[in-house]
Amino acid sequence: MTGASPGRLSEEQLVDWLRLIRSENVGPRTFRQLINRFGGAGAALDALPSVAARSLRGRVIRIATREEALREIEAARALGVRFATTGDPDYPSLLREIADAPPLIAMRGVSWTAQRDGVAIVGSRNASAAGLAFAERLARSLALENYVIVSGLARGIDAVAHRATLETGTIAVLAGGHARPYPAEHARLVEEIAERGLIVSEMPIEWEPRGRDFPRRNRIISGLSRATIVVEAARRSGSLITARFANEQGREVFAVPGSPLDPRAEGVNDLIRQGATLCARPEDVISVLAENAGTPPRKNLFDDDSLEGQDTLIDELDLFAGLDGAAFEERAAPKRFSPPSPSADCVADLDARPPGDEAPQRDAHEVILSLLGPAPIAIDDLIRVAGLTAREVQGVLVELDIEGRLQRHGANSVSLVIN
User: Fold this and answer.
1) For the chain, which domains are there?
2) Closest Cα to residue 28, out of 306, 251, 223, 280?
3) How many CB atoms lie within 10 A of CB 415?
4) Which DSSP symbol is given to 351?
5) Confidence band of 294 (pLDDT split at 50, 70, 90)
6) Over the stretch 392-404, which tens digit does the pLDDT of each residue have?
7) Nearest in space to 77 (alpha carbons), one of 186, 169, 3, 178
8) What is the C-alpha R_g of the chain?
């Protein structure tokens, strides 16, 4: 390929862009600085060694090689993945608006899916049956209003939201590269999403996700969406990081209220107290988005500094600060927060298992116990989300009933007794 369509890179330009964004300590902000100052990725690559040496007092940073970029391009083609830059017509328009938009994303699936208005649905990986059932209902209802559901492919709420909207199209954002989707047990789900929806990543094709990559992914989930809905989240949950990003990006934040007796609801109930819009039914989201079309919210839900001073989201350097007597000028961007350190919530995304390991098998009693909470759930819904037979579920419920741990309600619903 020698030329390129308007807004799209030629193959040689793509090699330069990949080399630049994959170089050490070059993130979205540094990438823009380099491109704007030197006029293109090729010129920026030529200038980068001397610029880094001056600004970093002689330190040498590693620059990605041409061979590495070509290997990534070939690996992408083998997987049916294509790259899009912020100037590409296929680049998601909502994502382009955020302060730290990825200069280059890798996409697999139906590109036009990303041009629809997105709504993110996120929540607990260890979700209750009631939370899973509501997330499924919410996703289906929003899809009927032509919103594309965006989430992070995680277990629990994310996976249910994706599966509920496979037919209408859904967007999954990866924390790692396309060749290393996480968790490994969702490999089939990835293939199903790619048929009618879209898989998005900013990471190298072969990148295996680390704990700190999940908050980085979360800014893309919220950036692709007009609104973010948190269904269940404990305090310090990664889903709350997504909500914070949405708020800083000027997008709507919704929270589904939960029982004060359920730790999985503590984070969402806190969001509501902080001013997030309560979501008790799909119409709550649909009506607000219709009323606020074209007028993004500006209220600040997170006015504390509790996350200040912790690890930065992306390791990148301001190569031009202090050079030529002044810092490099660029468009003013909203202040970014620093997410919790990997030793806290971010590691929870990896479930204490290395990428590629499948989730351990759990017996029926353990599965049902993890799905039940103080909120009543219809037994039919419990059977569906548990992925067990009706006989297995009913057997566990009888055991819990005998132990005095089960409360039965009308409409064939049950809940867990909380002491």
Assistant:
1) 108-318+341-350 (3.40.50.450), 364-416 (1.10.10.10)
2) 223
3) 21
4) T
5) low
6) 888 888 888 878 8
7) 178
8) 23
